[in-house]
Amino acid sequence: MNVHPLIEALSRIYETDRLLTRPAQLMAYESDALTAFQQRPAAVVIPQDRAEVIETVRLCHEHNVPFVARGSGTSLSGGSLPIAEGIVIALNRLDRILRLDAEERIAVVEPGVINLKVSEAAKPYGLYYAPDPSSQSICTIGGNVAFNSGGAHCLKYGMTSNHVLGMTVALPDGEVVELGGESLEGVGPDLPGFFVGSEGLFGVALEITLRLLPIPQTYRTVLAAYDTLHAAGDAVTAVVASGLLPGAIEIMDALAIKAAEVGAKAGYPTAPALLIVELEGEESAVEAEFAQLMQLIEETAPVEVRMAQTADERARIWKGRKAAFSAVGRLAPDYIVQDGVVPRSRLGDALAEIDRLSAGYGIEVANVFHAGDGNLHPLILFDGREEGALERAEELAGEILELCVELGGSITGEHGVGMEKRAFLPKMYGPLEMQAMEDVRRSVDSRSLSNRGKMLPVGEAESLTHAGPHPLEKAGVIFRE
Amino acid sequence: MRVRGGGSKPALSLRSCQDNAETLDLSGLKGVIDYQPDEYTFTARAGTRVADMAALLAEEGQYLPFDPPLAERGATLGGTVAAGLSGAGRYRYGGIRDFLIGIRFVDGRGQEIRGGGTVVKNAAGFDFPKLFVGSLGRLGILTELTFKVFPQPAAFATVAAEFDGLSDLLGALNAVTRSAIDLHAVDFAPAKEGWTLWVRIGGLPTVLQERAQALQSVVSTGVGRTSRLSLYREQEEGNLWKTARSMRWLTEGAGLVRIPLTPQRIPAVEEALSGANATTRRYSVGGNLLWLGWPDVSAPEEGEREAPQDLHCLLLDLDLQGIQLIGRARRGIAQGKGDYGEGEESPLLGRQLQNAFLRRIAAALDPEGRFEPW
After folding, report:
1. ipTM of the predicted structure?
2. Chain B residues whose beta carbon lies within 8 Å of the beta carbon of residue A441
3. How far is A372 from chain B (nearest CA, A)?
4. What phi-psi label fits residue A212: left (phi over 0), alpha (psi between -120 and 50 degrees) or beta?
5. Which of A312, A436, B145, B245 shows its CA 20 to 30 Å from the CA of B299?
6. Which CATH number fits domain A219-325: 3.40.50.300, 3.90.180.10, 3.30.70.2190, 2.30.110.10?
7. DSSP assigned state of B123
8. B18 CB near a chain A CB, below 8 Å?
9. What are the pLDDT digits (tens) for A78-125?
């Protein structure tokens, strides 16, 4: 693959400070939040408007060069890992909120807009954007769309796809299409729903119409500490069976609590397990539901219960939880954030098995999870300087994913398949399903250029023609079938 | 091939298109495969009647919050998904697209393929369940469906308000939908004189009265003058929404057309309709959906155009899309190359559905064109 003619063509669109080709410039784009994988692209372009994005995609197609659209690079599955000899399209300057219509409760945004900025812009109108991934202060809507990002509040209001009404998309050959619209309802197949979570394989979203919700009048958050993880899990079952529909139900284990303490000074009680339950809505309704919730929680024999009385106290509870991932970095030199789903009623089985695996491997695992929807986030701690430590951690992570599939769950709840879990998708779906996905992808992107190598195995030899295997590829950590 | 379920949407299941098309009746492919109340999920065969499923869910205090329409007329789960239908309750937690989490379908090569999963949260692979919502049998034949469900609120209350004119109503609509009150459904329709707005809330019965009063004050401050308010509870309240779900308000013999829109488009739509021969209508989902009753001219006189053709032109002028569910479908006008052609019937009205993305997806799932075009 000769990428120079493409770079030559791109240089006619981009000034030199927006077309990066020198190794020192490219280094910042070699990796995303899955730092175990690194790859140097041939070039990075920094478009300023949608016309430049469309033209870049069109040129990549014309020159048969793969590309990766990238936002803030917070993917935990290697979703924005560059392709060797490919182009990275950095969308951070497409960061305009084009329209905020309070009456229709929608926001039309460019893909580089930061998630939290949408809620900030909507706040004066009493509205907010519901999906709240832990990285919401830096991650972009474009990335959220590509990977159908979740967050702590998915149980009640769903993930990104439940909040995207429409979009303008550049398909992988540069053809521009409109999907969906501004209404909550539509006619014909739900194309925005199909595009969201397609991990960049269907092209680049240029404009996204988001649904906004009225800010809940009030929140009531309770933190309960338990003697065992099992007891915390039983409390979740009791809450779910009661018919209450909390906005969030979270559990953290001892190691995650320790991390949150070290990292965010959350002031959590020291206990083997913490449960966070949050109700939201109208004052009077939440008040009545909270009384019911507290009664339920008392019956589950917690060792300590704290109720957030003020917005400050609520923020502190969430700060510890949202900081847990990065705080784990204080406990070990390296860690892998895993993301799997099991049926809610199998959470206890899953945690016991993770415990057993952790002991067997002699590798510490901290557990943080969205218990309400059975979404586990085991954080696997290791020291990358030790010979073979990363490989063993990866192996343990793989066993946890297989466990999720065996229990009838999913290999990813919200981080996506990306680079990291390509080998596991065929464990969840059979050959017919894999073929159907590949067929659709090929039909949409005949040259497999758009985010090649993510989600689906790469079926052609073309991408193997680059300058030599990556060290991790040599080590068997990354594969390019 | 064309697929038929419960036959509650004859404009979709009975239309005559290609002469050699076979009809596959899925009404016998029914039954619940798995229902896990603790997991908030169930899996059922596509021909399972919505009403049967709703009854089963109700035994566990659960429900499909999007109020699947036409259940009383025999609608099936598969037909509701393929037609992409959600009812008034869609306002609160989302539509059928948000509650369908897994599917099995037979593609154009006769292969049964699984999409999505059986857990409430899943981001692995392409989201085939969403793609099949509204797919109208064009992309594959649904055989099995997995839904997320929610606990049903212990009680509901509805505030009804009457307004002299549309602009008063739209003012109240804006006030109520932007308030922090958790609304389950917001519907409105023209009355004999003026307009009626229905706003539904649900939750613990102990505080429902208090919340209904708060809602009444928001509804009445949304307009310049005092509107006539009434509060419905219990069975009477339930009946109000049963009427909406079953489309009992529809005039006998009328066709039914479903038109997505936004509240801001409503004045223009009303103006366009004022000159047309429309009968009855109901706006739902906070003004995001119009259910339109349309006189069904099954055998037009010579020189007289079929009614859906008029509506098709009206929607084109407004840049809206619609889909006919009940009544005789429109003939003629091709929707795009390779699709529905001259003289064939189509339930689709207004702005064209086709685009490059959809064409490429259909080419992958049904390469030989086994399923009826849009």
Report:
1. 0.94
2. 126
3. 9
4. beta
5. B245
6. 3.30.70.2190
7. -
8. no
9. 999 999 999 999 999 999 999 999 999 999 999 999 999 999 999 999
